[in-house]
Amino acid sequence: MITSTTDPRPADFADVRATNLAVVLRFVREHAPCSRADIAASTGLNKATVSSLVADLIDRRLVRETGLTENRVGRPATMLVLDGSPYAAIGIEVNVDYITAVAVDLSGERLLSWRRSFPGAAGTAGQAMATVAGIVRRVVTRMAKEERQVLGLTVGVPGLVGVDGTVRIAPNLGWRDADLCGDLTKALRDPGFPVQVDNDANLAALAEHRFGPYAGTANLVYLTGEIGVGAGVILDGRLRRGGQGYGGEIGHIQLDPFGAECRCGRLGCLEAVAGIGAVLEHAAISPAEVEIELDEVVRLARAGDARTLALLSSVGHNLGKGVALMTNLLNPEVVILGGYYVPLAPWLLPSVEAETRGRTIAPDTGGCRVVASTLGYGAAALGGAARVLDSVDSGRLPRIS
Question: Which end of the chain is more exposed for a tag (fewer CB within 10 A), N or C?
Fold first, then answer.
């Protein structure tokens, strides 16, 4: 039986089969190369059912046979691995100063990775939608030339994104109540694949959970280090968005009621005292200059400039206060600093770690490590593609052509 919030209803055969297909596909993803017998023994499905499910996945070109192995007891077995060569998942990140596009195949292999400057707060949600739509069309055209079917698109935005895909507020972009999902679907003229919108920190956390050095970690937090600061939270192996999708806004926790003004209009938010704006000492710079300014900060830090080192130490301590909040509330196994924090990590991490140790009630910071991301500036875009792959893993499989 499949239960719902109303009354129990009999399980539909198609639902059961889709669930079992997803079980087999996930097993192959995690254990390939593996045999049909391996799948049956580990999942509890009988051998006849597994054979039927594997045949279906092969027909869909999600799985392929890769020959025999004799390094086992009994007869040689035909081994299975992921295929997915006809498919692509697309992720897009819209940020204050750039837009990134990533396409991956079913195994997560990158098919392309593009990054271009973007006017950010100087533009409107409509302009961003038009820019994203143009990039998506180019990606889809590229995938079509490679004879790949697009499975879906997810767009990441630095702001509050409702479960319906509406961007309720994105302070650093100046957006309110932007139906980015609906408008983008219309702009793409009903593209034939699902379009989703999510918070950028959520998607970056998904990318780390699937592709990063700490992939599979059950309790993980990703902190964006862009113009804004947000948290993507994985607990017990699942992304946590909150009741309406607005969780993770750690950047707007007030640390200093008399501190610098934040872009949200409040004073002393974590974002204002530990974001990249604080590193750049609240200089009135354009988004296009952020990376240039950061390069100079890195150069000065490497040269041992006392003023720069003191500034980074101060920002690191403030950031550590935010990390300590996360460790006390959530007890993550790892907190990952992303975005612009990555090039500054050699100077930020000592202060972050010291502050976290001093403010975490659990001994040894509850077993939490603080590390820098290795996924680069495209983590949220990669996470957008990961969300599409997650939907495939959960049973939303492409149809047999």
Answer: N
